[in-house]
Write a structure and sequence with these properties.
Chain lengths: 477, 485, 96
């Protein structure tokens, strides 16, 4: 961004992601970690902070976080510490959140993103484990309600916090980082990546500085952005706001700002937040988490090909455009489906990719087999079916579950590509339209499509238009 | 029969010489007579206890013996959660709390066949050394009712000394089992940290708290320990070490045992009567083949300060959950959430609890962490190192349990620091996580009991029981306080 | 390094303990005595000492990721000082 004197500003962006880990049970007790239960249904003495209870750490939570650390090139610490973060709130039953502070599970990693054809490496400061809090419902949506209601179902649902370095400079980079990180977590099957439901949440730290300046500006923390698009919009707004304030000679204050998606602005929380003093200390109820080399090695074997690697491989192996490779790699299942479809026929990967992308929701729902796509692509390449018929065939396959070739034959959707078979019809069309034949022969080449149309009509759309054209051209000579 | 040992009572039930109902009825009626004088129980369970006793008798008739405590009436400090039985920690803030679950210790004594008579009085949230800090009023020492029984497990120690139960389970964070045991003339043991599950034991200072037995004899204490000790996967700090035969250990003797005498524990401040009695305990050990070794635990003088940072810091966090939201007391008529919480806690906690919550919050707060909590954790390392080095040369360490016999009710209640000093000999074991036992070894000229403390290596409760049993056999003392009414 | 009354009131707010001015004064005096005693630790040089935060030195044990629902939810909820259905009810948050 540039002011009218030509002074240029750049933004400095760091992102903090809270990802809910896709475990069956909570992090410190055996209650279900699932969404959407009736109030306080998924609770027990431990997660409601009854006197005398103690936490026991879920092994899978550690495994998921270690796998994430490995997938983001982080260093997994052999010993990390669970600490208590102390504050009072009715949705926090123990009045402390078990989290990690001075010794997080993993540190110093990075992920690579691609923005406008350029690769950027974004550092990851730390990955740590913590428990979620419950939910406070403000009774009666009407103003002036005197009470709030606490639902502790979400208490102790496992979260992983991933803190980036302040390495991003534009909202697009922020968006690309978030999408790539989300894709990695989904690939690893450690998080469902659903931003709307809150299982993948993002806060942003943003500041601006004159381009070329080394020191960071004063930053604002942005919260309440519940989609990738909203993160980008909030970043855009906030960067513009801070730049304008600075240019007007104002100063930026360090504060938390909430994104108001409806109004499209960030709003200061000033005054609504009390000064925090969380009094972190190591939780005496939980001993340090030990992750030895053998365990790390074992988990390393479970890391699948990651989105970045997959995109590069799809491009080089199949020669498809990078854009298509990105779309296919947005889901491990879709990418696998694509490769299986190509393998089933060995036909044109580009056409196959287009088909896969076109049907990606159905693929995600598991209602389509790679053979269906493979057969449809093959039939189109050999001229057995038309583009229109192939679409119809896929729809029928989804509906009936029958093999696509059986459907093709049953419904008579085979395209007539045999020239000899079409000759009689072409002859008939020529015989019935002497005037047009004369005009065509007289030089009106545009009339060819009229004849094609007539043949298609006679064959009720089953003729291969390319072959029809060839036969017509030969006969009309 | 209230004077019987627990082991004798258990044998009598097993041998059908007496029914559990007869034993239980006798003790319930003794509680009814004696408890008004000493205030040791906050909850008595006459119907439930008789029901349990009847069930145990039926089992005996069918040849079923649940475990070593089958049919024997015992009681526990009101810090252990009991499902369906009010659990208060002697605090107004938990006055009507009805736990949804049983503590592991409670499960274990029940599955060993014990009959639960009731819940015993204590200093609020186990913070105190005199059991005067209870919302149910002070407990009085059965040997002299103008004296305190020690604390915080003063209700349990007094109840055992008064013959109102065969044994009890208390908790010890800085001496809360050993010091009242000493002042009430009974045996009290704090096991190694991690030996007894803390699940369901309401937390005071999580890295120091440990449950343990209080009984009239060393073998009785050993029998209760055998029942409550052992790994529990619900407590992450519980240690998976096999539980030996503790009762058998009391017969081992002390031949060749090296007994360390830390000079720092026999310096000024020890009452003459205490010094004399502990010397007698030493003599008895030597006479049976032990060897005395003078040792030094150089950082002993720093233990109290270290403790009064770590324990309140952990407590400030552990007690934050009492906020009036989910259970317990809630202040009425508060305007808004913050006022509700702040008044609930101000009205629900007693003075000593508030004091410690304040110290702990301060010690953890921004700018002070390194100077207080961080520092205390480092000194804790030095204190552990002292013991580790000492145990290279000795098997057990002998000290007084408390510097003086029981003091008078009200004597130290307004002087917190002086009160804290009565735990000066017991605190180091909690900081180091090592086991300790207090065993009666004499009486003051005023007829007040005096205890000797033995400290041991991690998970070497057996040596402590062996040595304590020798002292007990060599120095015969009355086991039940001469209270009658 | 005496603790001030303002610090006492600040700590009391952090700890959610309402406190009258008279109580704060008494608390200040008692804390001052205790803290003065505690500060004897300053005499020890602990620069090279590793802190002890746990009495046992081992790694934390794990539990398997399996669900065992707690079946007696009402036993928890019945302790609530105030409830609405299966929610815990609390006064509204107001600024102070």
């Amino acid at each position: 961004m540039r002011d009218n004197q030509g002074m240029e500003f750049e933004a400095v962006i760091g992102l903090e992601v809270h990802a809910q880990l896709a475990t069956e049970s909570k992090i410190f007790c055996a209650c279900p970690a699932a969404f959407g239960a009736p109030p306080n249904e998924n609770t027990c003495p431990v997660c409601t902070g009854m006197p005398g209870v103690l936490p026991v750490l879920n092994r899978r939570v550690v495994e998921f976080a270690v796998r994430t650390a490995l997938a983001t090139s982080c260093k997994v610490r052999e010993k990390s510490v669970l600490a208590r973060k102390n504050y009072f709130y009715p949705d926090l039953p123990k009045a402390y959140q078990i989290s990690q502070y001075e010794m997080p599970l993993a540190v110093s990693g990075h992920i690579d993103i691609e923005v406008e054809g350029e690769t950027r490496r974004i550092g990851i400061t730390r990955i740590h484990l913590e428990e979620d809090a419950g939910k406070l419902v403000h009774a009666g949506a009407f103003a002036g309600a005197q009470t709030s209601l606490a639902d502790l179902n979400r208490c102790s649902v496992p979260l992983m916090e991933i803190v980036s370095e302040p390495d991003m400079r534009t909202p697009e980079e922020g968006g690309a980082y978030l999408r790539r990180l989300r894709d990695i977590l989904v690939y690893l099957e450690v998080c469902d990546g659903n931003m709307e439901e809150g299982s993948f949440r993002c806060d942003a730290n943003v500041s601006v500085r004159p381009k070329g300046q080394k020191e960071f500006g004063i930053r604002a923390e942005l919260k309440n952005m519940n989609s990738f698009r909203n993160v980008e919009k909030a970043l855009e707004y906030e960067i513009r706001r801070q730049t304008e304030v600075t240019l007007d000679g104002g100063t930026i204050v360090q504060e938390t700002r909430l994104w108001d998606a409806d109004a499209g602005v960030t709003v200061s929380m000033r005054g609504k937040e009390e000064a925090h003093d969380y009094r972190y200390f190591p939780d005496p109820d939980l001993l340090p988490i030990h992750v030895d080399q053998a365990w790390v090695e074992e988990l390393e074997k479970t890391i699948p090909e990651l989105p970045g690697e997959k995109v590069a491989r799809l491009v080089s192996r199949y020669g498809i455009p990078r854009y298509d490779a990105e779309l296919l790699s947005s889901s491990r299942r879709l990418a696998d489906f694509f490769e299986a479809s190509v393998a089933a026929f060995g036909g044109n990967p580009k056409v196959t990719a287009n088909e896969c992308i076109q049907w990606k929701d159905v693929v995600a729902a598991g209602k389509l087999s790679p053979e269906t796509i493979a057969h449809v692509v093959e039939d189109r390449e050999t001229g057995k079916v038309s583009a229109t018929a192939s679409r119809k065939l896929v729809e029928l396959a989804i509906e009936t579950g029958k093999p696509v070739r059986q459907l093709r034959d049953e419904k008579g959707l085979t395209q007539v590509s045999n020239a000899r078979a079409l000759e009689a019809i072409v002859d008939k069309v020529i015989a019935c339209n002497p005037k047009e034949v004369e005009s065509y022969r007289g030089g009106k080449a545009g009339l060819l499509s009229f004849f094609v149309g007539q043949v298609m009509k006679e064959t009720r759309g089953k003729a291969n238009p390319r072959v029809v054209q060839e036969v017509l051209k030969a006969k009309l000579g | 029969m209230h004077e019987w040992t627990l082991l004798d009572a258990a044998k009598a039930v097993r041998d059908k010489e007496i029914s559990s109902r007869e034993l239980t009825r006798a003790l319930l009626s003794r509680i009814e007579r004696i408890n008004p004088k000493i205030n040791a129980y906050v909850t008595v369970l006459p119907e439930a206890a008789m029901r349990e006793a009847a069930a145990r008798d039926e089992e005996i008739a069918r040849g079923i013996v649940r475990g070593p405590l089958h049919g024997v009436p015992v009681a526990i400090k009101d810090i252990f959660c009991t499902k369906g039985i009010r659990t208060t920690c002697a605090s107004r803030i938990l006055k009507d709390f009805d736990p949804p679950y049983d503590a592991t210790v409670v499960e274990r004594i029940r599955s060993a066949g014990a009959v639960l008579l009731g819940k015993q009085n204590m200093d609020e949230f186990a913070m105190g050394s005199s059991t005067e800090m209870s919302c149910f009023g002070p407990v009085l020492n059965p040997w002299a009712t103008d004296r305190i029984p020690g604390g915080s497990s003063g209700g349990t120690a007094a109840a055992v000394a008064a013959g109102t139960c065969f044994a009890g389970v208390g908790t010890d964070t800085g001496g809360s089992i050993r010091q009242p045991a000493s002042l009430c003339g009974v045996v009290g043991m704090k096991p190694t940290y991690g030996r007894v599950s803390r699940y369901g034991m309401i937390a005071f200072a999580s890295s120091l708290d440990q449950g343990g037995p209080i009984a009239r004899t060393v073998p009785d204490a050993a029998a209760v320990l055998s029942v409550i000790a052992g790994y529990d996967r619900r407590d992450s700090t519980s240690v998976d070490v096999p539980v030996p035969d503790y009762v058998a250990a009391t017969e081992r003797g002390v031949k060749g045992m090296r007994v360390g005498l830390p000079r720092e524990y026999f310096a000024e401040g020890v009452d003459d009567s205490v010094r004399t009695a502990v010397t007698k305990a030493l003599t008895s050990l030597i006479s049976l083949g032990a060897e005395a070794v003078e040792i030094s635990l150089p950082h002993t003088g720093y233990a109290l300060s270290t403790y009064y940072i770590i324990a309140p810091a952990e407590a400030s966090s552990n007690l934050a959950r009492y906020d009036g939201v989910r259970y317990g007391y809630r202040a009425a008529g508060a305007k808004g959430l913050i006022e509700m919480m702040s008044r609930t806690r101000a009205e629900g906690f007693g003075e000593e609890v508030k004091r410690r919550v304040m110290i702990g919050t301060y010690a953890l707060s921004a700018g002070y962490y390194d100077a207080y909590y961080g520092k205390a954790q480092k000194v804790r390392t030095l204190l552990r190192r002292d013991f580790n080095e000492a145990f290279d040369h000795v098997d057990v360490i002998l000290t007084p349990t408390a510097p003086t016999p029981a003091f008078r009710v009200g004597e130290k209640v307004d002087d917190p620091l002086t009160m804290y000093l009565s735990d000066i000999y017991t605190i180091p074991a909690n900081l180091a996580g090592i086991p300790g036992i207090s065993v009666p070894c004499g009486m003051s000229p005023d007829g007040l009991p005096i205890g000797a403390q033995l400290l041991g290596k991690h998970f070497d409760e057996e040596s402590l029981l062996a040595a304590a049993a020798v002292i007990e056999r060599e120095i015969p003392l009355p086991r039940v306080a001469p209270l009658e009414g | 390094m005496a603790i001030t009354r303002e610090e006492v009131l600040h700590v009391a707010r952090l700890a959610r303990l309402s406190m009258s001015p008279a109580e704060a004064d008494k608390m200040r005096e008692q804390l001052d005595n205790i803290l003065a005693y505690i500060r004897q630790l300053d005499r020890l040089d602990t620069a090279d000492v590793v802190p002890t935060s746990h009495a046992v030195e081992m790694g934390t044990p794990f539990r398997d990721d399996s669900v065992h629902p707690f079946e007696e939810k009402e036993e928890i909820l019945k302790n609530a000082p105030d409830r609405e259905g299966d929610f815990f009810r609390v006064p509204r948050i107001i600024e102070d």
